[in-house]
Amino acid sequence: MQAHWEEAPSLPQEQEESLADSLSAFSEFGLQLLRQLRDYFPATNSTAVHRLELLLKCLGKLQLFQPSFEICPFESELNMDIAAALKRGNREWYDRILNDKSPREQPGPQRLPGLVVLADAVYDDLQFCYSVYASLFHSILNVDVFTLTFRQLERLVAEEAWVLTEELSPKMTLEVASGLFELYLTLADLQRFWDSIPGRDSRSLALAGIHAPFLPAVKLWFQVLRDQAKWRLQGAVDMDTLEPVDASSRHSSSAATAGLCLSHIQELWVRLAWPDPAQAQGLGTQLGQDVCEATLFYTELLRKKVDTQPGAAGEAVSEALCVVLNNVELVRKAAGQALKGLAWPEGATGPEGVLPRPLLSCTQALDDDLQREAHTVTAHLTSKMVGDIRKYVQHISLSPDSIQNDEAVAPLMKYLDEKLALLNASLVKGNLSRVLEALWELLLQAILQALGANRDVSADFYSRFHFTLEALVSFFHAEGQGLPLESLRDGSYKRLKEELRLHKCSTRECIEQFYLDKLKQRTLEQNRFGRLSVRCHYEAAEQRLAVEVLHAADLLPLDANGLSDPFVIVELGPPHLFPLVRSQRTQVKTRTLHPVYDELFYFSVPAEACRRRAACVLFTVMDHDWLSTNDFAGEAALGLGGVTGVARPQ
Q: Could you tell me which residue ranges the MHD1 domain spans (predicted)?
C-alpha cells in the first residue's frame, strides 16, 4: 500500500473515503487490542510479543497516510490515541484485580491481603512493562509506555494504601501488622524501581511519604519476626543430630538454618529501606538487638542439646562438641555480617565503613558473648582430656633416670598426636586454634602440678621436664602451622620455664637470682614507699667501695604521730660474694619523713667481686622503736656492675 501510495498519491474521492474508513477501522481495532495489552500480548509469550511488534509497526505506518488525506481518518494524533488506549486499559486491568482481590465494600482487615496481592501484581506488571514493552513502544512509535503506566498505577495503588492504612491504624493487631508490613515492602520496591531508572525522582510520586502510617505496623511486625526466628531456631535444633551436614562441612543443619534466618532479617531490612533517618536508627537498633537475642537463644539451645547427647561423656574428643563449636563460630560470623547489613544509609555521622554507635555496641557485646560461649564449649571439650593428660605427665615424672627423655615423653606425644588429628578433622581453623590454646594451658598446668607434687628429686627430673616442655613447644608450633611461638612462650610458660630453670640451679645460683629479682625494683614514678638518694663509687687504689647515704624523702609514716624515726642499713650481697663484709647503718633521725644523713661508708672488697653477677648494695630503711622491734619501711638495691670504678676507670 505504501509503495502504491507513493506512485499515485491522489485518489478519486470515493476510493479515498473507502481507504480512510478502512484505515480508521484498522486503527480502532489496533487500539482496542492495546487496551487489552496484557491479555492479547503477554510479556512471557515471545510469539505474542512479536505480534505486538508487528501491530505497532502497522500503526506507525498509518501515520504516513494521514497528511495526504483530504478526509482525515483520524480524529486526533495517533500517539495520543495510543496513550489514551493504554491508560484506559491500565485502569480496566487495575479495577478488575481490585474488585476481584480487594473489593472496597469489604472491611479493612479483610481487604488487606487482597491489596497485598494487587500491589505485587502491579510491581510484576511494571517489571514486564520496563523490560519488554517499553523498548518496543519507544523505538517504533516514540511512546513512553513505562512512564505512562508507572505514574497511573502508582497513583492508584497509593490512593488505596493511604485510605486503608488510615482505616487500620486504630485496629492494629499482629495479623494486621504482618499484612501491612508485606504491603509496605512491595510499595518500597515500587519506589526503588522508579529510582533505579536514570533521571527519575521519587519525591513527586504519590507514594512519597507513605512510610509514615506504616511505622506502628513495622514496629509490631519486628516482634513477629523475632518470635518467628526463635521458633525456626527451636525447630532446627530439635531436629539437629549434631553431625556435619556433609563431608565438606563441619557444622550441622541447625547452623545453616540459623545463618539463613539472620540473612533473611538483613535482606528484609534492605528491602524496607526506611527513608526517615531518625526512625531508621530506632528500627535498625531494635532489629540489631533482636538479632543478638536470637543468636544467643540459638547458642543456649545448642548447649542444652549437647548436654543431653547420649555417649558424649565417655569420649575423649566428642564429635558433638566439635560440631557445636563450629556452629557457634559460623553463627558468630553470620550475626556479625547481618548486623553490618543493618546500618542505616543516612544519619550516621561516622566515617564510611564504620557502623553507627548503637549497632557497634550490639556487635561488640554479641561478639564478646559468643567468644565466651566458644570458650565454655572449648573448656568442656578439653576437660574430657584432663585425666589422660595428667596420667601421661605422671608417667614422665615417675620414669626412672635410666630411660632416655624421648622415650619417657613418647606416650604423651603419641596421645596428643592422635587427639589433635581428630580435632583437626572436626574443627574449622579458628576453633582449632582456640582448642590448641586451651590444651596448651592445660598441659602447662599439669606439668606445674607435677613439679609441685615432687620435691627433693634429682636434677635429672627437672631436666626431663625441661626437655618435655621444649618438645611440646615444637609440637604445638608445628613448623608454623599451629600456634605462634609468641603465644606459646607467654603466660604460664614463662612461670614454668623459670621454675624449671631455678630447680636446675645450685644453691648459690638461686641466691643470686634472689638478689637479681631485687634489682627489678619499681621506677620512682610508681613507688609509694619514698625515695632514697645515694652516691657510690669504687676506689681502686684502696680497693674499697665508697657508699654515701645522702638523704631520703616521702618515707612511710609508721609512728602514731604520723612521722617516723628512720635509719638506713647498708649491706653488700649476695653473702657468698662478700663473706667477710659486715653491714653498716646510719644514725637515727627522729620524727621526720624526709631525713638528711650525709654519711659515708667504706667496704673493703676487691673489684672482681663487685663485677660478679647479682653483686649489689642493699639499702633497707627501718623505723626505730625504743620499746619494741624496729619496723620495716622499705628497701632498694643498686647493682655494682655499673658503678664508676667497677665498670670503667674512676
A: 181-302
Q: What is the pLDDT, as a whole number, of residue 350?
A: 47
Position 339: which residue type? L
Residue 216, burial from CB neighbour count under 10 angstroms (0-12, 13-18, 19+)? middle
Mapped onto helix, strand or coil, the DSSP state of residue 529 is coil
Backbone angles phi, psi at 546, to 5 degrees: -100, 125
Alpha-carbon distance values, 158 to 119, 152, 211 (Å): 10, 10, 11
Residue 535: strand, helix, or coil? strand
Reported as half-sphere exposure (CB side, CA atoms, 13 A), residue 278 has a value of 1
User: Which stretches within 169-252 are classed as H helix?
Assistant: 174-195, 215-239
Separation CA 558–CA 623 (nearest Å): 7
What is the torsional sign of CA 435, 437, 443, 446?
negative
Any idea of the CA torsion for 82, 86, 89, 91, to the nearest 10 degrees?
-130
DSSP 53-121: HHHHHHHHHHHHHGGG-SS-S-SS-HHHHHHHHHHHHHHHHHHHHHHHHS-TTS-HHHHHHHHHHHHHH
Structure-derived torsion over alpha carbons of residues 549, 555, 556, 560, reported in degrees to the nearest 10:
90
Is residue 476 within 8 Å of 483, Cβ to Cβ?
yes
Instruction: Give the H/E segment covering residue 534.
Output: strand 531-539
Distance (Å, rounded) from C-alpha 552 to C-alpha 536?
16
| Overall size of the chain counted in residues | 650
The three-state secondary structure class of 572 is strand
Q: Is 566 helix (H, G, I), strand (E, B) or coil?
A: strand
Distance CA 552, CA 622 (A): 12
| C-alpha pair distances (Å), 327 with each of 252, 324, 378 | 7, 5, 13
Helix (H) or strand (E) holding 598: strand 596-603
Q: How large is the greatest C-alpha to C-alpha distance in the chain, in angstroms? A: 148
pLDDT averaged over 10-residue windows placed end to end, the chain, 650 residues? 68 78 88 94 95 92 65 64 93 94 87 93 94 93 91 93 88 86 91 78 80 89 90 93 87 93 91 87 90 94 83 63 92 91 61 70 90 90 89 90 89 92 89 92 92 79 89 92 90 88 83 90 76 93 94 92 95 94 95 95 94 93 90 93 78
**Calpha distance 604→613 (Å, rounded):** 19
Q: Assign 599 to helix, strand or coil.
A: strand
The whole-number pLDDT of residue 46 equals 94
Amino acid symbol at 310: P
Which of 329, 317, 300, 309 has its CA nearest to residue 439?
A: 317
Is residue 162 packed enough to be buried (19+ CB in 10 Å), middle (13-18) or exposed (0-12)?
Answer: middle
Report strand pairing: 584-585 vs 631-639: unpaired
Q: For residues 381 and 318, is the Cβ–Cβ distance under 8 A? A: yes
**Alpha-carbon dihedral 283, 287, 288, 294, rounded to 10 degrees:** 170
Using an 8 Å Cβ cutoff, are 560 and 534 in contact? no
Torsion sign (Cα): 193, 165, 261, 292: positive
Contact 236, 257 (CB under 8 A): yes
Q: What is the reported pLDDT for 575? A: 93
